[in-house]
Amino acid sequence: xxxxxxxxxxxxxxxxxxxxxxxxxxxxxxxxxxxxxxxxxxxxxxxxxxxxxxxxxxxxxxxxxxxxxxxxxxxxxxxxxxxxxxxxxxxxxxxxxxxxxxxxxxxxxxxxxxxxxxxxxxxxxxxxxxxxxxxxxxxxxxxxxxxxxxxxxxxxxxxxxxxxxxxxxxxxxxxxxxxxxxxxxxxxxxxxxxxxxxxxxxxxxxxxxxxxxxxxxxxxxxxxxxxxxxxxxxxxxxxxxxxxxxxxxxxxxxxxxxxxxxxxxxxxxxxxxxxxxxxxxxxxxxxxxxxxxxxxxxxxxxxxxxxxxxxxxxxxxxxxxxxxxxxxxxxxxxxxxxxxxxxxxxxxxxxxxxxxxxxxxxxxxxxxxxxxxxxxxxxxxxxxxxxxxxxxxxxxxxxxxxxxxxxxxxxxxxxxxxxxxxxxxxxxxxxxxxxxxxxxxxxxxxxxxxxx
Length: 452
Ligand code: PLP
Known about the structure:
With 452 residues, the protein is α/β, with parallel strands linked by helices. It has 2 domains: 32-65 and 346-451, Aspartate Aminotransferase, domain 1, CATH 3.90.1150.10; 69-344, Type I PLP-dependent aspartate aminotransferase-like (Major domain) (Aspartate Aminotransferase, domain 2), CATH 3.40.640.10. It is 42% helix and 17% strand. The protein is built from 17 helices and 16 strands. The chain has helices spanning 8-15, 23-29, 55-58, 67-79, 92-104, 118-135, 156-161, 165-168, 186-189, 196-214, 240-250, 272-276, 303-316, 329-344, 347-364, 401-411, 434-451, and strands at 34-38, 41-44, 49-52, 109-115, 143-147, 178-181, 219-224, 254-258, 282-285, 297-302, 371-377, 380-388, 393-394, 414-415, 417-419, 423-426. The strands form 3 sheets. A 7-stranded mixed sheet has the order 4-10-9-8-7-5-6, sandwiched between helices. A hairpin with a 2-residue loop joins strand 1 (34-38) and strand 2 (41-44). The longest helix has 19 residues, at 196-214. The structure holds pyridoxal-5'-phosphate. Pyridoxal-5'-phosphate (PLP) binds next to helix 6.
């Protein structure tokens, strides 16, 4: 495409190195430049309006013009725009937010460690695993097991936990000490005739075998998203986490819940851990924590973990980990206001009232000839496009069919996301109204027909 010299698109191509983008394709295709937002809608620089059917990157839960959050940020900026938490310093927003997070957490957590992103949260998890096991005199117990198609971020350690080839290839990852076990996608990986329960039993057995093969004295933790997001919205099969938890307990392996997407009502409960019966030792959360208005994320740890690392920090001299912006007061103030708004507006009841309509429209797409599976929970879902429905044959990555479908949806006024060769994902802001859910699915139906 030829863009006018000095147009915003030409300047973008000339200057911006885009994350998660085929960079050569971008040079031809150029950017969709979003210039404003209101409610569930965003506008591009040509004046076209879209429903943001992905809440940005699974995060803008309260939509695009939440004055309360803007005011919270401005107020805090005026009062104390920056302070930190190193060497016994603190500021009020991080104290208030830590207390609030603990009060709504899905487990009895003892302390909250603030970071700026999901990736930093999961890097922190890796460091906690190491620090804790050194502290308790088990220096050989350090390995962490992630899952194929799990997504935990892109920093060196977090990308290693991630089980997606694109995040490893050419980056020389994963790092040492990370293993990956099965992806719990029943549609794709179950044996013929295998029920969800049987599939879960087999996966838990495979996990146990992996732990035994590695040596249980070397395996420290298992990390899982309650619902795999960036792997294509993969909802765990019946009984999965119950069986996995039993294996983890048997071998004294931590359950790290990565609730970066599922935290704060996405699956129809406050936490994905509640929806799927997960009992985490530690938890990462981000994204909807601040409705994405400012970057902030958190790691919560249980008391045995805290006590061990506190002792170690005493003997070493300090817990030598932290970011300049850990507990940034403006981000923390916005996050606290976000959590208050969820309560004041009873967002949980709203999500529970509207997600049946979302899931009904989603599941109805399974009848479309291109759709192999329509899957989801709460207000998140995906359709998997297949080249051949009876055999579930996948499209080749180079076919770009999911990307094409997403482009058609965009032409019909809805922004969705393509993942891999075949998945089209949907994850709207939580404050979406039922009528707007229908608009999303009307557009997606048309897009599927266009793709046909
Ligand atoms: N963990 C999960 C489950 C995620 O979905 C993501 C991002 O999508 C991350 C971690 C990484 O978060 P961030 O992009 O904020 O580093």
